[in-house]
Structure of Protein nucleotidyltransferase YdiU:
Amino acid sequence: MPVSPAYRPDPKLPDLGPDFADPVAAADFPQTILRYRNDRAAASVGLDGLTDAEWIAHFGRFQPLPGNIPNPLAQRYHGHQFRVYNPDLGDGRGFTFAQMREAGSDRLLDLGTKGSGQTPWSRTADGRLTLKGGMREVLATAMLEALGVPTSKTFSLIETGEHLQRNDEPSPTRSAVLVRLSHSHIRFGTFQRQAFLERPDNIARLVDYVIATYYPEVDNAENRTAAMLSMVVENAAKMVACWMAAGFVHGVLNTDNMNVTGESFDYGPYRFLPRNDPNFVAAYFDQQGLYSFGRQAEAVYWNLQTLGGALSAVAEPDDLIGALNEFPDGYRAELRAAMLRRLGLKPKSQDHDTALVNAAFQALAAGGEPLRWEPFFFDWFCADEARAMSGPRAEIYNERQFANFRTLLAHTEPDRPERLQAAYFQRTEPQELLIDEIEALWAAIAERDDWGPFNAKLAAIEEARLAYSL
């Protein structure tokens, strides 16, 4: 392939060695039908110039990218799944394929896969991904990015021509291989595995890798490991706060689904809230509501504590506890900031902003069944009361339960109110991504192989992203 000057390969993961990953080969798929390519994400790593044939060769057949990882690496990790420790994990249907520097910055980004075939960590599974699962992940990452959530980006989706048997969807069902672009695939469970194996030398090595690769600013800190944990805590607090402001429920907040750079990834049974409900769960098997919407911050904090436990083999517990104790205040600050961003407002004061955020959640609850989550933020974006009170939900907003929210909102300053001139905000309804719509998009594909509604939805989400980010 002709190499773009913006393509800067920098494979670091192989340096960690065989204790952390295994060389694997991708499955030889019967077909490779390109269903989605993210050229905007590809441009960020200098790969947007690939022809479709080259794209399929690299992301469907997994021919190595120039100067990059010569053999895909399936990472080794453990994890708590619904708070039960599982030492039989690892990349069972994926691998890290390449690493490169982001154009315009020095961030190292990974290309990782999902559905690329069996690995030593597949156990009895087939190592595959359903096309429906891949389609859902494309939608999730696009919507989350539009709403300002730190997330992996779906880079590629290729249908692979196999027929899969699954218990949670009609089978046989179509198969796919997905590639995601993410800042890191080093998980909390990567540290947990080395702690379980009683390898403090490998924990120290992993700490050095994470600091050098992702957090060089703490390299000279007196307590480097605790300083690294503090950065992980900060980014995890931001991530979950952004989920809450977006009305997003990840669904499976296990320690192998959390990485050290604070990007959410690996979207299985996710959901976006139809309306405010702290008990809303995304996964049908989460019968205790452990990862419900209202408990996500608690779940992330618990996971951070398990990471701290693994790090205690190489750092003083008191230093690690100090870093972990930063989470509650950090989360509250990040939630204020995330809610202000969703409402298109500039910060005013901590007291006022806290009261406004509380009033917003109370108003969402008071709106009950008729008030959906996303339209609330859409209507009140940039504190444009005239727009909200002339829209389809004006009758709801006239109720006394909204008085406190409206009073507090009147004392705010909009952030870049010119964004309201975008065509997106001339509409009466925002883009949402509720489960019924996702099922309808899949039905068009499953029944008629009609990708038109799916592509139209992505275009509509992109319009929203551009409107919010102007």
Summary: The mean pLDDT is 97. The radius of gyration is 22 Å. The chain has four domains: 8-185, 217-335, 345-415, 417-470. The CA atoms of residues 237 and 329 lie 9 Å apart.
